[in-house]
Design brief:
Length: about 160
């Protein structure tokens, strides 16, 4: 789970949100949020608990095309960590993929900083495995990122 930091440099969230809203949540870049009830008891209208940002991706030659979901960020507010909000967001991501992008639902990928022990352990508990690494030069420091994947069998309808 991210902490909203800039591990991969600055992200233009305004641009990302504009793309998400322009596509009404059905484009390649998607965001799901979790919010508390408001004072009137309306679910999802209160303070933001967290969000998950992800992208449906394709790469490779047409004969061996890879279709997957790139998990960009899961962020949970500090006061809601440790109570299952991150897992609920991940489950919502999986449900959205299963209903709208079944091919990508079977192959979810992400990068996480190698030294970021808490999120590494959390992703492993969710079924992610190490699948390589890459280094990024961030300012004067070199940061090693692990590529993690979670692959599942396609869901078969009966």
């Amino acid at each position: 789970m991210g902490n909203g930091g800039n591990a991969l440099g600055r992200m233009d969230f305004e641009e990302v949100l504009c793309e998400v809203f322009a596509n009404k949540g059905t484009g390649d870049v998607r965001i799901l949020k979790c919010a508390e009830e408001d004072a009137a008891g309306t679910p999802g209208r209160g303070r933001l608990v967290g969000y998950v940002l992800y992208e449906l991706r394709e790469k490779g030659p047409k004969t061996r095309r890879q279709r997957f979901c790139e998990l960009v960020n899961i962020v949970v507010s500090a006061e809601h960590r440790g109570c299952g909000a991150g897992k609920k967001l991940f489950e919502a991501l999986c449900a959205d993929l299963a209903s709208s992008a079944a091919v990508q639902a079977t192959d979810i990928r992400l990068f996480v900083a190698e030294r970021n022990a808490g999120p590494l352990a959390w992703y492993r508990r969710l079924g992610f495995e190490n699948a390589g690494w890459q280094s990024e030069q961030l300012g004067s420091a070199e940061v090693k990122f692990l590529r993690m994947v979670r692959r599942t069998a396609p869901h078969v309808s009966r």
